[in-house]
Design a protein that fits this description.
The chain is an all-alpha fold. It has two domains: 209 residues, no CATH class; 215 residues, no CATH class. The longest helix has 41 residues.
């Protein structure tokens, strides 16, 4: 390829990445703001309601977080069919994903409603906090189907290379959630129950907005409102493997939290700050993974292996480069950033060194997040599942060593941070990098 043509192709791919990733970043940031608004408003009701929200929120985030495969499975299926010129098939795959999300959401919501009290009691909190948590959780179960339908709808639109609509819907949902929460909690005096109802109504309003947009796409493509059995099976197969992949990630997160807890309250609090900052940085880097999913699926669907590999190279460059920028900013801010999360002197003393380690690891994190998106876009879900479990198997013995051999204090927080952000992420990077270097993930066509 002539130099000028190669440069033009790189610029075109870079524009596509930016056009998809920047709105996706906004939508990703809007999602955790729901819980932040709830926390800010409920926090003024007292310690027991806030503790109740912490318990109920952790249960909800775990259950719903495991279902994120509904977006990740839908995006590549839609993108492949779009790339192959089959717009009808692309939209139908998205409609199938919506129905699957609704069915799973009803099942998960019903099961959690029935088990709300024992789930809350498992945390061993006081009776007041437990009562508040149970109230919030039982009402919030009504919103679980909506949350999962939102996942699938955003996956459909991302597959159609539309990340702007999810940003608009997420922004509207966030604003509506804030208004309803304030009105129900303080205007109507409903307390924590008002917060739960406000969030549930905002989530279903987001579903309504998405359905209007999806219905418009369906009419244009000549797609009916009902699912196809074969499409449900396709989303289910891919989603099942991605569920296993997510389960491996959650296991690594949970194991690290348990390791931090074994070093005492101060280290645990410090790790919570570190993990919160890691999660925030991950949102920025994961936006590139979403762009990679859509672009890779589209290229493979159009049987253009060369473009797919060019997308891999450019998104990897963007991922590592973004990791360098975000990591450098975190290292520079490491002496101060902890004050935004805590005023405890003992915790603040632990944070700077650990945050430097985390910042230094973010280029590696960018590499991992992007390749994760690449292989999702390629539909390589089985490989992602098995390597996720293998990564946990490699990580746990090394995490145990970092826990058992390092004394509690600043060194232990550094060791735990390094274990997760370097060792675990390096295990994932090796598995994903080896796969991306080969051609087994390049499966052309629908």
């Amino acid at each position: 390829m002539p130099l000028t043509a190669a440069r033009a192709e790189r610029r075109a791919i870079d524009r596509s990445i930016a056009n998809l990733a920047i709105p996706a970043l906004g939508a990703l940031i809007a999602e955790p703001l729901f819980l932040i608004v709830d926390s800010a408003l409920i926090g003024h009701l007292g310690a027991e309601p806030l503790a109740g929200l912490a318990i109920a929120g952790s249960i909800l985030q775990t259950a719903v977080g495991l279902m994120v495969f509904l977006a990740y499975a839908t995006t590549p299926l839609v993108a492949r069919r779009r790339g192959a010129g089959d717009l009808r098939g692309a939209v139908q795959a998205g409609v199938d994903g919506l129905w699957l999300a609704l069915g799973i959401g009803v099942a998960v919501g019903g099961a959690m409603w029935a088990a709300s009290r024992p789930l809350v009691e498992a945390f061993g909190a006081g009776s007041g906090a437990s009562a508040q948590a149970t109230t919030y959780l039982t009402i919030s179960c009504l919103g679980i189907p909506a949350m999962l339908v939102v996942y699938a709808a955003s996956g459909l639109l991302r597959g159609l290379q539309d990340t702007k609509t999810p940003l608009v819907v997420a922004t509207i949902g966030f604003a509506l959630n804030a208004v309803l929460n304030a009105w129900f909690i303080y205007g109507l005096g409903l307390g924590i129950a008002g917060s739960a109802w406000g969030t549930v109504l905002a989530q279903w309003a987001m579903v309504g907005a998405y359905l209007v947009v999806v219905a418009r796409h369906a009419r244009r493509a000549g797609v009916g409102p009902l699912p196809h059995h074969g499409g449900l099976a396709s989303v289910g197969r891919s989603g099942g493997w991605l569920f296993v992949r997510t389960l491996g990630l959650r296991a690594a997160f949970l194991a690290t939290v348990l390791a931090a807890a074994s070093h005492g309250t101060t280290v645990t609090a410090g790790y919570q700050v570190v993990f919160t900052i890691f999660t925030t940085a991950a949102f920025a880097l994961d936006a590139l993974a979403i762009a990679a999913q859509a672009l890779i699926g589209d290229a493979l669907g159009s049987r253009d292996a060369a473009r797919a590999k060019a997308v891999v190279r450019r998104t990897m460059l963007w991922g590592v480069g973004s990791g360098v920028v975000v990591g450098a900013a975190l290292i520079l801010a490491s002496p101060l950033v902890g004050r935004a999360f805590t005023s405890d002197g003992d915790v603040l003393a632990l944070l700077p060194a650990a945050l430097v380690v985390l910042g230094a690891s973010l280029p590696l994190g960018g590499f991992v997040f992007v390749l994760d998106g690449v292989l999702m876009g390629a539909g390589d879900a089985r490989y992602l599942a098995w390597t996720s479990l293998a990564g946990v198997a490699v990580y746990l013995p090394l995490l145990w060593a970092a826990t058992a051999l390092v004394a509690p204090g600043a060194s232990s927080l550094v060791a735990l941070t390094a274990s997760f952000s370097f060792i675990y992420m390096a295990a994932r990077a090796v598995a994903l990098g080896l796969r991306a270097r080969g051609d087994r993930w390049v499966r052309l066509g629908v």
